[in-house]
Design a protein that fits this description.
It is built from 18 helices and no strands. Helix 17 packs antiparallel against helix 18. The longest helix has 41 residues.
Amino acid sequence: MRDLPEPPGSAWPVIGPGVIAAGVGLASGEFILFPYIASQVGLVFLWAAGVGIVTQWFLNMEIERYTLATGETALTGFSRFWRHWGLVFAVMVYFANLWPGWASSSATMVTYLFGGDATWIAVGMLVIIGLTLTLAPVIYTALERVEFVKVGLVVVFLVVAVVFAVGADAWRELPRTVTAPEFPTELGFALILSALVFAGAGGGQNLVQSNWIRDKGFGMGRYVPRLVSPVTGRPEAAPDTAGFVFEPTEENLGRWRRWWRLANREQLVTFVLISFVTIVLMSMLAFSTVHGVPGLANSVSFLQVEGDRLGELVGPWFGTLFWVIGAISLFAAAMGIVDYTSRLAADVIKTSYLPSRSESTIYFVLVWGLVGLGCAILLAGFDQPLVLLVISACVGGLMMFIYSILLLVLNRRVLPPQIRPRTYRVIALVWAVLLFGVFSALTIWQQGDRLLDWLR
């Protein structure tokens, strides 16, 4: 039992977790998936990005609600219902992220610039990621700086793109996403539904909002030590309990309301705004450059065609800039994915199974385990192995379906009545359950045959 810490007077000191979420989420969806859809059918599907991002905003805020009130992560809260819930999600996140696709995509874009072997470049990138995450004194701070730089570079690029490359046709097409929205199933139901559900973040990334706001010092998370490097970091004193509660006095409830407003504002002006604007402008750029070009692939090779086209329309410097920003963006996304995959698992193992061990040491082992697996997969010659991609697609939607239900139960049962979610937020969680439930069922049904064929 402790009092809720006093919140800062403005949102500036708490800006960070939403930027990291947007930065990690700005990956293949924003650079490939939505631009590819725009190149095929125009901008009539951008409404889906808004629906997906707003749904994830509600989801992120319910994840943050529990951590703000207790200092515990949502996974620890789930484990209070059943000890192994956290382990279930940690294993699912690992399966979803085994294939180092973001590092491989970043390496491929580097080859567009300088040539070379994408496999060995990707291996080098994974090693750099491992060193960065385990040598930084405070891991959250290092990740925050990387993602701030990435988001800043993307914003600068998009400003330049709006001036030099986005044509009048794209601006005339943009209102159709509201006036004539479509669900272009001719591109494949799985592709379209994936874009709807995973706009912004998706999968296990939403769950790590708990860890990121705790390390930033949100609410009761200020009483919990941050994750530091076992090599260069200075360990912080750990409490004797996993989490805390505050007595619902008028003073604490007043602080809670201010914390809740700050947390919502931080997510809106960072995660929601950055993700949506990026998807819209990157889609408009693709529409202006490669709309109607036949034979485009929904893969990283799409970016080579778009970069070549930008070089023709604006100048070689702009195509090169596009590939540089894409390579940096996908590399930063890969770093964030390695971090959150290892961070979630380390929190679970420390809290539920190895309470006497250092979370930083567990994190160190998990980071290098994931880096080693990624390098082994790449060096074994697998080129986007089908089984890993199918597992990732199936696991991501199923995971979000399950933890949407658990969040609904957790925040309505465990938290004091004064800070439980209001009716409209409960409705938003029910919508998330239905959306992700339908998505996961359809994905498993559609992809199941492919997986069985591979196993045969």
